[in-house]
Amino acid sequence: MGKTMCYKILSAHLMEGNLKAGETITVKIDQTLTQDATGTMAYLQFEAMGLDKVKNELAVSYVDHNTVQVGFENFDDHEYLRTVANEKGVVFSRAGNGICHQVHLERFALPGKTLIGSDSHTPTAGGVGSFSFGAGGLDIALAMAGVGYTMVAPKVINIVLKGKLRPFVSAKDVILKVLSRYGVNGNVNKVFEYTGEGVKTLSVPERATITNMGAECGVTTSLFPSDEITYSFLKGQGREENWVDLKADEDAVYDDRFEIDLSSLDPLASCPHSPGNIKSVDSLKGMKINQVLIGSCTNSSYYDLRKVAKILEGKRIPENVSLGIAPGSRAVFEMIASDGTLETLIKAGARILESACGFCIGNHQSPGTDSVSLRTNNRNFEGRSGTKSAKVFLVSPETAAWSAVKGEFSNPMECDSDIESVKYTDSFIIDDSMFIYPHENGEGIKRGPNIGEPPSNTSLSDSVKGSVWIKVGDKITTDHIMPAGQYLKYRSNIPRYSQVVFNPVDPDFATRAAKLRDEGEGGFIIAGSSYGQGSSREHAAICPMYLGVKAVVAVSIERIHQANLCNFGILPLLFKNPEDYEVINEGDKLELSDVYSSLEKGEFTLKDLTNGKEIPLSLCATDTQKKTLIFGGRLNEIKGN
Ligand code: MIC
Ligand code: SF4
After folding, report:
1. What is the 3-state secondary structure (H, E, C) of 300-324?
2. 37 lines ligand 1 (CB under 6 A)
3. pLDDT reported for residue 39
4. Which ligand 1 atom lies nearest to the CA of residue 488?
5. Domains (ranges, CATH) in the chain?
6. Which of 1, 247, 268, 310 has the fewest CB within 10 Å, making it most exposed?
7. Which ligand is closest in space to the CA of residue 535?
8. Ligand 2 pocket check for 378: Cβ under 6 Å
9. How many Cβ atoms sit within 10 Å of the Cβ of residue 627?
10. How far is the centre of ligand 1, averaged over its atoms, from the C-alpha of 338 (Å)?
11. Contact predicate 531/556, CB 8 Å
12. In whole angstroms, how far apart are CA 462 and each of 190, 210, 469, 594, 597?
């Protein structure tokens, strides 16, 4: 029986376990990446492990999220990251060098390697055939310490691409089509693997757009084969000596198959407030828009921006639209600056933004009240833009640019620009001067007052008593649990950041929780399906833990968040009968008894002391995670407390 590409890479990295879908396996991690918003915690945790230097093949620390630097906190964090990188043997990518995923794709990602990153869009590197996935900062710290990553061996879904995209239809429309089929939940422990003759029509940046947004479906990663197109991309980056030929066997067996005819795809859009809420651009035509933002780790390549410039060429955006464009990396910025593209963008009225995450994480460019914002990034959760009443639509760069010109939602296929004259090229500017490689004579690790200690939990008790501190519905994202935007600067300061837990859903939650904690009560979170989707931020576990949350009881929990809960000693529990979600109410007193033996069996009985009901639950954790939970988290486990 032939092998999938996914299982070829996993088997080459297998350290422990039986490589069969659903089994727990441990794999060797070659590369790691962190970004500043999750990185400070990751390196603080790495320091707490007491190791001198990182042990994996390559560790890169990017600064791309908190680059606005309002107040001293961001700059302090960056100085900590720069100096700790030098001490620990980590390559440091300075603010301004670009968005981690775009830069990693250009300069480091390799076919056949494993890469783990403290950011959910790490699968972008699947565009060159790297088995790359997101995880919490603590897992990255462990990978840097040379510890293998324990995961559930995934099911593999084959996405077969046929035909060729028509002009003005692009890679973004392909992944939006995938999202329309697979949605944003129910895909935990699955991998998308792209095959078919249509794959050959897509360049590496286009492939990376597609693998990037697989994260929105909740799959572990997405993979494109490593072929002559990958070789040519790596050659353009001066890295072809590391190319390997890698693809699935002809007779590989998959768990599911979805076919897309690229030639029949139309421009699509994710509508408010979920990336999985897909409609055709045609059906939205004519809607007045206020803001257009082009960039992010999904769509900010040189090719993307040249196509945008072709659409904007000779035109001016109308007075009712604000257009912002952020090149994904400094290299892309240099390229558009040197070939006239930048001039075209400026002349059209675009506001040129820093090569950073910026608007995507609500750091700036928040839209006006009730306004409509078209963006090329990957998430449109309610309020993520910084404006709760705004309606954010996710679209391709082509749809974004043409709609900006028209001042309303418009189908780019109606644009008369000669977009076919824009040819993809693998000729890149290479300039690594914004990377700092570890060197002698460092300054020692600098810590500003914003850098706290990584907090840890207490060990698990045999009886967990408490009450329901909050009951939330389906698809609660980590942006709901731990908002970013204006609060992002508190990522290294857990006591301060904990003050905004669940702020977008229930602004009183944190005050109420802290009071109950101080009165000695434990907290339960009751949730619907797909709890914790979105970002990898482990703060969505750390801060609730800090407030005294002991367990999350949900219909389903997303992969990265589930791992983060275990890493910080919060029990991830699932309703055996999803309808029991209705039985529990906010404020109910709850009890879990015989916790140790229940943990062992993987089955719990939750007593609702308020209404006298007994609710069967299952533990959502591997055997390795069960041990971690007993210690009250991974840091305690490592230190043996
Ligand atoms: C995101 O896109 O939500 C983020 C911000 O990049 C997060 C990481 C974070 O919260 O710092 C992610 O995707 O993991
Ligand atoms: Fe940055 Fe947005 Fe990409 Fe997250 S999704 S890494 S915030 S650009």
Report:
1. CCHHHHHHHHHHHCCCCCCCCCEEE
2. yes
3. 97
4. 11
5. 5-264 (3.30.499.10), 279-411 (3.30.499.10), 464-633 (3.20.19.10)
6. 1
7. 1
8. yes
9. 14
10. 31
11. yes
12. 34, 45, 21, 5, 9
Pocket test for ligand 1, best of 63, 99, 121, 533 (most atoms within 8 A of CB): 121
pTM, 2 dp: 0.97
pLDDT digits (tens, 9 = 90+) for 62-96: 999 999 989 999 999 999 999 999 999 999 999 99
pLDDT in tens, 135-169: 999 999 999 999 999 999 999 999 999 999 999 99
**Is pLDDT at 641 greater than 90 in this prediction?**
no
- Taking each helix axis from N to C end, the angle separating 539-547 and 36-48, rounded to the nearest 10 degrees, works out to 70
Average pLDDT score over residue span 377-394: 97
Residue 192 · residue 217 · CB < 8 Å: yes
Which of 302-316, 368-382, 445-459, 541-555 shows the lowest mean pLDDT across its residues?
A: 445-459
Minimal CA–CA distance to 577: which of 522, 614, 535? 614
Beta-strand runs (E) in 578-630: 589-592, 603-608, 613-619
Mean pLDDT of 49-55: 96
| Ligand 2 mutation target, pool 105, 121, 304, 533, most atoms within 8 A of CB | 121
- The residue nearest atom 2 of ligand 2, judged by CA position, is 360
Q: What integer is the mean pLDDT of 100-110?
A: 98
Closest CA to 100 of 68, 67, 142, 61: 61
Q: Please tell me the distance from the alpha carbon of residue 482 to that of residue 123, in angstroms, as a whole number.
A: 22
Residue 314 C-alpha to ligand 1 middle, in angstroms?
36
Report the separation in Å between the CA atom of 414 and the middle of ligand 1, taken as the mean of its atom positions.
35
Radius of gyration of the chain (CA): 24
Nearest ligand to residue 37 Cα: 1
Residue from 63, 124, 378 to probe ligand 2 pocket by mutation (most atoms less than 8 Å from CB): 378
- Ligand 2 centroid – CA 161 distance (Å): 26
- Residue range 237-296, pLDDT digits in tens: 999 999 999 999 999 999 999 999 999 999 999 999 999 999 999 999 999 999 999 999
CA distance 93 to 98: 8
Residue 124 Cβ inside 6 Å of ligand 1? The answer reads: no
Percent of the chain with pLDDT over 70: 100
Nearest ligand to the CA atom of 134: 1
In the predicted model, what is the mean pLDDT of the chain? 97
